[in-house]
Specification:
5-stranded mixed β-sheet, single chain, alpha/beta, 7 helices, globular
């Protein structure tokens, strides 16, 4: 039996976290890691105590908002936002941590990650947000496509 690498291990957990997502459009999970320890997790979904979109219907679908636009027109929070909030609520320092995420972050999440002190982002698939990737690069945050890491490409 072959043990997974640390990147594979944390990305597997990220996929599991994404299964908790209540978003009807995109199942996304995020895991914050430092020194091979999980600090916080998050998934796409409505705030605690708020009715899930599967009951109310997707506001973005109703308004025909394209993916990657008008993020404020949504009842839910992104996985990265929920991971940052979870860390803050529990007094966990995420400075210099690594974010594992099923999707690359949107621009709103990117700005939060920059100010939270995240040092690296590892993601499974890209998201249609060129500005986000540009700002990650400008801030010095390393961003890697997971397949590039496991295949040795990055």
């Amino acid at each position: 039996m072959e043990r997974p690498s640390w990147d594979e291990y944390f990305m597997d957990i990220t996929r599991l976290v994404a299964r908790r997502s209540t978003c009807m459009r995109r199942q996304v999970g995020a895991v914050m890691v430092k020194d091979k320890n999980i600090l916080a997790t998050g998934y796409h979904g409505t705030p605690s105590g708020i009715t899930h979109c599967e009951v109310t219907g997707c506001l973005r679908e109703q308004l025909k908002v394209p993916s990657g636009e008008r993020h404020e027109l949504c009842r839910g929070l992104h996985a990265e936002q929920n991971a940052i909030i979870q860390a803050a609520r529990h007094g966990v320092n995420i400075d210099n941590s690594v974010l594992y995420c099923t999707d690359s972050p949107c621009i709103i999440c990117t700005k939060m990650l920059i100010n939270a002190g995240i040092q690296k982002v590892v993601y499974l698939k890209g998201y249609a947000d060129k500005l986000s990737m540009e700002m990650l690069a400008e801030s010095g945050i390393e961003a890697y496509l997971f397949d590039d890491i496991v295949s040795g490409g990055s």
